[in-house]
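Most newcomers find our protein records easier to grasp once they have seen one. Read left to right, the backbone structure tokens trace the chain's path through space. Nothing more is needed to start thinking about how sequence determines fold. An example says more than a description, so a record of this kind follows:
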Amino acid sequence: MFTGLIETTGTVASLTTIDGATRLTIAAPSLADRWRTGDSIAVNGVCLTALPTQAADSEALSPAHFTADLAAETIARTTLASLTPGSIVNLELPTPAGSPLGGHVVQGHVDATGTLTALTPIHPGQPSTDWRLTVEIPPRLTSQIIPQGSITINGISLTVAHLDLTDEARPSIQVAIIPHTYATTNLHTLIPGTPLNIETDTLAKYAAAQRTLAHETTWLTPAYLLANGY
């Protein structure tokens, strides 16, 4: 489990496909010696299994890098397959049991991708300014999003400031970005049109599923409730 508080950023070293298998290698010197083979690491909000990487021109393993294999489901559901060498990615190690949850409960299971439409400074020209991030999202996610609720964008725990349903075919959300988040994540490297990984809040997801189940349940009628003493 993660919290959406980005620990550091890494750099894509390579993305290769060999015999149908896609392998992503990340340079992450600040995480060296902090993970073991098989550990989970969130990369742009996607929970991946970290594997050792052989150093270039050497049989030695590189502690400054880790590699992860991308399943077909991961490729289809996330933005990871669109990364290129040199891309900056957000990284987070799992939260140990008993640690404070500074963000919100993040599983690293991406629901869908959205598109960055704008990243606008609130106080242009000022050395330290808040930003307003606007992201177009798939319509099917709107039932799992509420204003002032939590959402994860590229692995970052954020709060929804506004849900815009004016165009039902192209809904969007806006979130406020503080200067620290802008500077210490990969947000400052992104441009409009960039695809983003979206994970809705776990509690909102289950609530939406329960609403759907109740709507589709035909046996739960007033007559049934009356006959059973409700």
About this structure: Residues 112-215 form a domain with the Elongation Factor Tu (Ef-tu); domain 3 fold (CATH 2.40.30.20). The chain has four helices and 13 strands. The chain has two domains: 8-92, 112-215. Helices lie at 72-77, 179-184, 202-216, 222-227.
